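Box 3.1 A note on notation
Throughout this textbook, protein chains are presented in two layers. The first layer is the amino acid sequence; the second is a token string describing backbone geometry. Keep the layers aligned when reading.
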Amino acid sequence: MHTLRDFMARDHLYCDGVFLGVERLLLASDWDAALAAFARFQVLTLQHFEAEESLLFPAFEARTGMRQGPTAVMRSEHAQIRQLMDAALTALRAQDADEYTGYSETLSIMMQQHNMKEENVLYPMCDQHLTEQAAPLLAQLRQRLPEGVA
């Protein structure tokens, strides 16, 4: 059995890999494939956020009573990442490499920092406080994030 931290961190890695693929496609000047890969990355990332915001965070908040702590920070960062993804997608659609690069670099840094906070602070707290709920939560997360499971 995996911990919540292990499962969610593996999904982070999966999303990151798809994101890195966009860069490789852009270096090859394959705009259509880069756009498709970025759209896939965006869908996967939004699924990850949705799973956290509708399952993991509410379970943590209900168990600990912490509603303005780490989950509030993560939700705020999710909103910022959503905006950056939208801007990057717009730049890709316009085939504006410079604008896309600016957004993607900011997005990359923000995601790395965000993922580190979740993996090193929030997820271990979830594992600590959600011991009894871990198995059903993992089952629900696996249904919502099937790509990152493999």
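Helices lie at 4-27, 31-64, 70-93, 97-129, 134-144. The chain has one domain: 4-127.
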